[in-house]
Amino acid sequence: MSTKTGSPESGSPKRASRPRRPGWTLLSSRAASDCDDPTAAPARHHGSNAAPPFTWRRALQNMVWVYAFGLVFLIFAIVAVGDGDPSPLLLAGRIVLVVGIAVGYLVTAWIADCSLRARWLYLSGYVGLLILSYPAWGWTLVGYGVYVAIMLATLLPWRQSRIAIVVWALLLALTIPFGGAETATYIALISVGMGLATAAAMEAGRVQGRLQHAQRRVDTLSVAAERERIGRDLHDILGHSLTAISIKADLAARLVEVDPAAAKIQIVEIEQVSRQALADVRTTASGMREVRLATEIASARSVLLAAGIESRMPSALPPMSAAVNELFGWVVREGVTNVVRHSRATVCTVIVEPSAVEVRDDGRGSPTTSRAGSGLRGLRTRIEAGGGVLRVEAAPSGGTVLRAELAAAPGAPTEPATERVGDIAVTTS
Questions:
Q1: I need a labelling partner for 23 at 20 to 30 A (CA). Which of 99, 188, 288, 316 fits?
Q2: DSSP annotation string for 361-390
Q3: What is the average pLDDT score of the chain?
């Protein structure tokens, strides 16, 4: 069953989680519930504790008391209700107008939850009410111009309210030659001053809210990224180390009867690998884990030898930056671990180029990229973050090829020097 969703601008989305009330299509609340919505009313309350729209609690959250405080200025209209010795009908009409203007201004706190179109229609209706007061009160209606300016500031987004407030003030000023006189002059000035100040303050609050919301998002994503990094590093480190321990322990068990001295060597190496794994776990948690390609090649040779797999490793490495060196180290670590665990290979070959590294075996083949485990997924994330591509393909002669390629070899030293890590020549800056 499909669910149709109306345009956010129309304010009439149909959602299974919120039953719609008949007749509220025009005055429905917007779907967006945070300050990221650029069309939301500036005076609308944001937050997880927001009450349902069009309730008294919601009006309190939308600061209805601020609008109530503004009704103090209606005292001048109330005092002038009896000016000119009006007839009973005219007096009743003026009283109805004052009440209508007051109630209409207070209802602004509820209208803030409506769609942008509904808010514009409400503002137009309120201005229409003021115009209707002309036959009963003449140009006294301009005295309520400040109410309209405040409503423009609280109901419309900044990009619209700043223009609408200035246009409204100009319209009030146009009544001066027709009888608005001094009242229209200072009401126009007050309207533009108070309206723009209120709108600017609310826009500043909205921007601050967006910044805080963005900061919360960044904090959440940072925590998630750090958890992913630690999980990925622990998988790569412990997977390799535990594989090495398992292989060496099995070899030691087979040698203990026929060659105790060789078995003792394997047991010593198991202890060394265990201590190194413990140190790696500690440094990984603090983000200080360093992986070097030459070290991983030397470790891979030892693990492959213990597993009975012939290793073909490079005797020298091309010049590369520290970042590329670390990335390629992770590739060799994960690739060799998979060869030992899954391939049943007899030969494993590592090929290193300035911008690529390849781990090749002649085994039964590894899972395709679509079925890759978390180790390959984590490795792919590392390579892609470094601007490269990771490929897992079947070798033409059988087995699997794990190849990582970078678009370039950034930061390669211009004056390389050579040092040795074990029996591997490493070119560095």
A1: 99
A2: E-SS----GGG--HHHHHHHHHHHHTTEEE
A3: 78
Q: Has this prediction a pTM greater than 0.90? A: no
3-state secondary structure at position 428? strand
**CA distances in angstroms from 34 to 37, 48, 187, listed in the order given:** 6, 9, 34
Residue 98 corresponds to which tokens in the numbers above? Answer: 């004052």
Q: Are the beta carbons of 114 and 27 closer than 8 angstroms?
A: yes
Contact 156, 41 (CB under 8 A): yes
Task: Band the pLDDT of 415: cuts 50, 70, 90.
Answer: very low
Residue with tokens 């998002």: 217
Query: Max CA-CA distance within the chain?
Result: 125
pLDDT value of residue 429: 45
CB 173 within 8 A of CB 188: yes
* Edge-to-edge strands, sheet with 347-353: 310-312, 347-353, 356-361, 400-406, 388-394
